[in-house]
Amino acid sequence: MTAQLLQRSAGVQLHPTSLAAGRLGDDAYRFVDWLADAGQTWWQMLPLGPPDRARSPYKAASAFAAWRGLLAEPAALVSDDDIEQFRAAESFWIADWEAVAGGRRAVADQVRFSREWGALRAYANERGVRLIGDVPIYVAPGSADHRAHPELFRSGEVAGVPPDALSATGQLWGNPLYDWPALQRRNYRWWTERLRRTFAMFDVTRIDHFRGFVAYWAVPEGATDARGGRWRRGPGRAVFDAAARELGELPVIAEDLGVITKPVERLRRSLGFPGMVVMQFGFDPDDPHGPHRLENHETNSVVYTGTHDTDTLRGWWDALPDATRAAAWDAIHAGGFEERDPWWSIIRLAYSSPARLAMIQAQDVLGLGSEARMNIPGRATGSWRWRMAPGALTAEHAKRLRAAAEEAGRA
Q: Is 208 a catalytic residue?
């Protein structure tokens, strides 16, 4: 991992669409300033690609292109020279995007995004704030990638995950599945280029559904839910070894949630990637040995209060069964983290974890309920819409979060 992540630190997860204006620009710069004031080192986001009709960034129209809707200045001047330089620099994918998104204008938007993003990232780095991105393992059906490279994908089955704690019928994602032997014959170049693009934009990236590189859940095309799927073998570390030969060290966080087996753990450890633990999963009285329990956290990991797929801390707390709430109170009292707001107790508890990095959702800093939840897995509509009110994150919030970070040695 990168040197920054090897240090004990903290950050906040907030997608740019959840900023008050819903895009880059002044709000993004003010959020960076707020993070610095709050003693935070990291800003984590969801994928930045053009979302689908349900607004899901995990079904983007391109695995490489950024979304025009994030631009603060969508009409900024772009010259022909700018466009040709961008085409030359991003030759692996830009023609595929042009073919589905509209030629010159599509490239101009990517030039605009590159300018705005580069300026924001430089501003953040000057203030000690680093950026964490998110790479969905799969591409969207009908995306530029799927259309341009059909030889890299299988037919007859689609992606999903089996039933778990988040959904009794599993999650039927519907994404096309990779033809891993076909990718292997091409030395996994598509994946190497995808990671190259990501690392050019972010200091670290989270790879969603990491367990799919060991084995993935394949659901028959046309199924109504994911229960009828089956496990199929993935490529293992070969994808990452191919990328590392060209890109060097891979600054990756492995999203290892869900049905995790020993082979998945072995792959993550062999690559040196930190995994994820989630505080909301750590108080089940029937799972004393679970990896999410505070006493079982590892140093080489990232602790989250919750993720974009879970409820907010306040919404989660309000709906807890009595036994789980009692277990959470026991942990809070044992750590001496009693607060008037239970969600702040959980934030301080997360900060006390041995995990090197602690990530808090912005909704949890604000103490918002289920109305501010980002996503409900398995539901096709109504997600990805939460937006922060102007000025919601105040100097008092920053002071309180900084105090918690300093207490835990994370500021």
A: yes
Tokens of 326: 């009692």
Residues 359 and 42: beta-carbon distance below 8 Å: yes
User: What band does 362 get if pLDDT is binned at 50, 70 and 90?
Assistant: very high
Catalytic residue among 90, 203, 309, 311: 309
Mean pLDDT score across all residues of the chain: 94
Whether 255 is catalytic: yes
Catalytic residue among 255, 256, 311, 364: 255
pLDDT value for 5: 64
Range 3-407 has CATH code 3.40.50.300: no
288 vs 301: CA distance, rounded Å = 19
User: Phi and psi of 337, rounded to 5°?
Assistant: -110, 35
Compute and round to an integer the Cα radius of gyration of the chain: 21
Bridge pairing between strands 171-178 and 153-161: antiparallel
pTM: 0.94
Backbone φ and ψ for 118, nearest 5 degrees, come out as -60, -40
Phi/psi-derived region of residue 198, left when phi > 0, alpha when psi is between -120 and 50, beta in every other case:
alpha
Amino acid at 400: R
Task: Give the integer Cα–Cα distance in Å for 383 and 67.
Answer: 18
- Which of 96, 193, 208, 256 is flagged as catalytic? 208
